[in-house]
Write a structure and sequence with these properties.
The protein is of the alpha/beta class and 316 residues long. It is built from 13 helices and 14 strands.
Amino acid sequence: MIVALAGGVGGARLAVGLAAALPPRALTIVVNTGDDFEHLGLAISPDLDTVMYKLAGIENAQTGWGRAGETWNCMDALAQLGGETWFRLGDKDLAVHLLRTQALRQGKPLSEITRMLATQLGIKHEIVPMSDSPVHTQVRTASGVLSFQDYFVRRQCRPRVRGFRFAGARTAQVPPLLQKIIGSGKVKSVLICPSNPYVSVAPILSVPAIRAWIDARDFPVVAVSPIVGNVALKGPAAKMMRELGSEASALGIARHYGGRVDGWVIDRQDARLAHAIENTGRSVLVTDTVMSNRARSTRLAKKVVDFAQALARRSK
């Protein structure tokens, strides 16, 4: 059993490679829900949907989020009526949000709803939200405390970041399947996808049960750097790092995670940093990490899994 922690486009890209490399029984994908919110009366789970659409092969390849072949009739009509359109919801995408909202109001947990939606889309691998209860990422900025989607979408990440808070994390309800995995003793490694460390991975690690499990681990944790050549391939991770006083590089990312990660996968562009990362006591794999298509995602995933397995054998 391998558990992958994922969020955002980078997380979805590696998740689809892992799903191609591993059978369903050998992989569980735990997804960030810190950016979930209610909009227009609907329950929106952006990271869950990004991972789900990618695994189902129906994602919008150009944007990385949303569905392929999308139409925008509802948004256009909403604009004509003076409604809020800053967060774009396509017509096909709306169907998922409607079903999720209806099921939540009927008292069904988010994890059960996610499994139902994934099954309907033909996904065999387990996609598990990090929590069945709400955890909300709040961004402390020079403009005040902002909800994540306000910062990320409405304000397009412009405000200077000063920190983060994950409201509801202390009392987060870990889904039953994840509870079972945590207590099973069968996990061979945890893989941290190349997701934003502050707003995709940190919310997952803010859940006490998940954090305690990883901190007390008897398996290796392997992470793929989301920074390549001092640039985040997708999203504001590099900007956030600089604003928080960290070096926006693969080495800066390794320092950020510290002892929570045993092995790092970095891109060939950052090969010069491998020795410095190894000097922190971590193992390093240098390879091509840019996942521009599914074949590249699968190739990287196989290398990451092999690296994790090698670390696991070494630690015995």
